[in-house]
Write a structure and sequence with these properties.
The chain has a single domain, classed as 3-Layer(aba) Sandwich (Cytidine Deaminase, domain 2). It contains four helices and five strands; from the N terminus they run H-E-E-H-E-H-E-E-H. The chain has a five-stranded mixed β-sheet. The structure holds zinc ion. Zinc ion (ZN) binds next to helix 3. The site of zinc ion has 6 residues, from helix 3.
């Protein structure tokens, strides 16, 4: 599958965001860029902590930044990791994505390439209150 111009821009911004990751424990620098339904883009990176459970992923960093700026409807998210390994979003991030945009387009990439999917595929049977 090819990426359109917007997807390529999102992925480039995710890659750039990974530069600011704080990942002294895992060594995996992850960046993310989320596109709002109205066209704004917010980025985030993983921020780890010596108390591991306090770590926040790049995806949630970007989403929480967007929500704090008043945006709650998203159309796509790109995630980049500077590794050969595939890093699809973790379960916690999938649930946070589902809170706002159950049909979110998800692009995740590493040093070797990218995958394009959507949240309905990554998180079937989404939990809602
Ligand atoms: Zn996550």
């Amino acid at each position: 599958m090819n990426l359109d111009n917007t997807d390529q821009k999102l992925l480039a911004l995710a890659k750039e965001a990974a530069i600011n990751a704080y990942a002294p424990y895992s060594g995996y620098r992850v960046g993310s860029a989320i596109l709002t339904a109205s066209g704004e883009i917010f980025t985030g990176a993983n921020v780890e902590n010596a108390s591991y459970s306090l770590t926040i992923c790049a995806e949630r960093s970007a989403i929480f930044k967007a929500v704090n700026a008043g945006y709650k409807d998203f159309s796509a998210i790109a995630i980049y990791v500077d590794s050969d390994r595939d890093f699809p979003p973790c379960g916690a991030c999938r649930q946070v994505m589902a809170e706002f945009s159950p049909d979110l387009k998800v692009i995740y990439a590493n040093l070797n390439g990218f995958q394009v999917t959507d949240l309905k595929t990554l998180l079937p049977g989404q939990f809602k209150l």
